[in-house]
Amino acid sequence: MTENSIGLVETKYITFAEAPQQLLLECGQGLGPITLAYETYGELNDSKSNAILIVHALTGDAHAAGFHEGDNKPGWWDNLIGPYKAFDINKYFIICSNVLGGCQGSTGPASINPITKKPYALEFPLITIGDMVNAQKYLIDSLGIDKLLCVAGGSMGGMQVLQWVASYPERIKSAIPIATSLKHSPQQIAFGEVGRQAVMADPVWNKGDYYETGQPERGLAVARMMGHITYMSDQSMEEKFSRKLKDQNYSFSFKSDFEVEGYLRYRGDEFVKRFDANSYLYLTKAIDYFDLSGGKLIPSGQTIDTKFLVIAFKSDWLYPTYQSQDIVRQLKMRHIDTTYCEIKSTYGHDAFLLEVEEETHLIKHFLNKRVYEEN
Amino acid sequence: MTENSIGLVETKYITFAEAPQQLLLECGQGLGPITLAYETYGELNDSKSNAILIVHALTGDAHAAGFHEGDNKPGWWDNLIGPYKAFDINKYFIICSNVLGGCQGSTGPASINPITKKPYALEFPLITIGDMVNAQKYLIDSLGIDKLLCVAGGSMGGMQVLQWVASYPERIKSAIPIATSLKHSPQQIAFGEVGRQAVMADPVWNKGDYYETGQPERGLAVARMMGHITYMSDQSMEEKFSRKLKDQNYSFSFKSDFEVEGYLRYRGDEFVKRFDANSYLYLTKAIDYFDLSGGKLIPSGQTIDTKFLVIAFKSDWLYPTYQSQDIVRQLKMRHIDTTYCEIKSTYGHDAFLLEVEEETHLIKHFLNKRVYEEN
């Protein structure tokens, strides 16, 4: 257990949108029933005014903090969530929801289609960030929370933050989008598409119909390896690996000679054990479709009182700082209370998981002084 | 035909290193016979002092300029090679050599192994940039050229330029390494490795033994798609594609919705028609192994009188300008006559093929005023 850990936690599940009350998706199809996996940390106060929603990145899950029974590693944002941490559970009630379309307890392409009694596979409808947020709204409603004190998340999580504001501004007191964008650029779409092609090129993928035979591990690992390059920076790779060899000399073969090669292969292999290939396709497509640019974040004529803390990282070349600056520009043009901070990190996009000290400082101050005390 | 085109050209072939006079490779193995495909443009003067060697990038070939019979498109550097162009064939005798390990007329893994009478496939030894240059030296020797007026090339071509200087400084009057590096960084190695894994993940690859059954098109296309992202810049992709859709609306399927997706798929599909998957593995490994850092470019105690023009492009994030600056630093420390130019281009790494006007200006001036007139 780390210092100020929440300790043992358990994932919970909520199921809703049973037919005929299905969730109407942006693609026009209805979907239901829908299950979302989520975790909560801390206590909801009597006025239900201290709830913070944490939303996760592409391959994240509901387990943001604390330990599951038997785990060696805590949740993915454990160093930001806990007693006296950035998201202080002595003050706040924290909810972390897995996304619709995911594969870690929530309804997605690997789930059983109630009509066919078999996994949906590609029968699962394409979902959007908007659909993810609409599903999360069921969860927030079911907890009796009228207004969230804050929604916070990085990367695809940041898109959900922005989408919450766009879809339900009256439900959000403050928002912390981190290392994210109003829309995917063609380069970001291109990386998404190559990842998808890597999966779909694997014959084991079998047009998505692989649940009885095992998943397309080779293709999915390639996609993940490429992803990992984009999550790090040139500099952080240099610091971590440089040209260090695994053995003393070049092998003069196609074995992995360099430590960075071994690392990528390892990360690829680990990933396929925990993540469903079809979910990877659906979620990358959802972020490619995401587009709240050109005034769509806050439709004209609408006024909102959500306060923003926008965080970006200088070495993040996957979600470059100019994209966060675009968010800030949109907000400032609408006279919305916005704080922008660019953190000098060398970690690249992964910085949103790693720059704990700076993030803690910024988030704690923002929540305590700007949001909570005015509550 | 474009203006000042060389017109029709033909690829020539030279074969050497027949057993027992095989070429000793850096891996310790001998290789022979070796064929290199090459083209020449212009006339070698009587003193054989006007020869310029052009060396190509990863998937380039010997066809740098002019047209082959029936071709609609000229060679890959046609806008820099021809009468009155940067490499002016009225003055210079231009040689462009395909690389050892390649698949466009030169000996590589797809060639017939004289012992087994079948394609080498993975029996082909791992080759290095040093081996490529040693093979090119046979060609230059056979043409009776003692000293090259210049060696020029971009990307992997730039590595061959640097290697020529490191291996045979007395044979090189001037050198133009463009958009290249003294060594591959871990990020560059990582992209290489993911490309290789994409190929090797394709079961059609069959451990390299596919010459009778057809090549691993899906895997190789994925590798090439990823490569294309790294050859462009975020900005050039924005200018070329933005978020333009192929149809009016999102398909809500895994078809390619965005123009950038269609473009990448097209480039991937085109590539597999012209390039051998095993060659791709061998050449990417050769550039990953390349390392002339730390004084290896010019061993201490050695003095050389080669003049340098080093060119880099601001938006090139695959071979960032700091890597060209490292080359310049190494040269300046050894008091070598070096001109460095950073071109403000938005094209990314592809700029070395596209920034014709700037390159023409720089190269013409360098060759005419700094090299040729002092001849």
* Mean pLDDT, all residues of chain A: 96
What is the fourth-level CATH superfamily of the largest domain in chain A?
Answer: Alpha/Beta hydrolase fold, catalytic domain
Class by SSE composition of chain A: alpha/beta
Helix content of chain A: 25-40%
First and last CA, distance of chain A: 33 Å
The run of helices and strands of chain A is EEEEEEEEHEHEHHHHHEHEHH
Figure out the total of helices of chain A: 10
Task: Give me the Rg of chain A, rounded.
Answer: 20 Å
Shape of chain A: globular
Number of domains of chain A: 2
Quaternary assembly: homodimer
CATH fold title of the largest domain in chain A: Rossmann fold
CATH architecture descriptor text of the largest domain in chain A: 3-Layer(aba) Sandwich
Number of strands of chain A: 12
The level 1 CATH classification of the largest domain in chain A is: Alpha Beta
- Order of strands in the sheet with the most strands of chain A? 1-4-8-5-9-10-11-12
